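One such shown below:

_____
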Amino acid sequence: MTEISASVVKDLREKTGAGMMECKKALTESSGDFEKAIDLLRQKGLATAAKKAGRTASEGMIGSYIHMDRIGVMTEVNCETDFVARTDDFKELVKDIGMHIAAANPTYLSREDVPQDVIEREKEIYRAQVTNKPPQVTEKIIEGKLDKFFSETCLLEQIFVKDPEQKKKIKDIITEKVAKLGENLMVRRFVRFQLGENQPSGPKSC
């Protein structure tokens, strides 16, 4: 049996925000593999988030982020209680999302918010790019290209700009905070202003 040191458990707790016992259990299940333990905890976090997703989130805060006096973002992020809204973890999440929006300039909040006519137009463009392929292959290619479109234009699908490994999406960092704070969290809407634009790119609501 692999021996799990207290320092490794502590490192995993700091990286994931999960409890000490959960971290130790994940490390034991993964035979001490740190990255696999993170995956196990994220899977558990996803399950936890799913249970909380239906709960009412009407508290929270509206955060603002200004970059170089040229780009401004306002973001409403909701939680269940004003207690969580006052925590540093929640405030950090709101700030990080605002900073991400300033840098990545998403067009929509989620893929569900993309108008159907926009999706159909994208599909037609992709279909015209694919030639001499069987229909089922063509549809799979279109589906893949559409996923890429969502990952580029939808906030929750975008890779978090501060993630050093460029793997976590915005929805992943929200899920991690849900697991840590124990409440349903959600981005309600955002608006992004850029100096010289005719109108702000927003608001985008869920």
Q: What stands out?
A: The mean pLDDT is 85. Residues 115-152 form one domain.
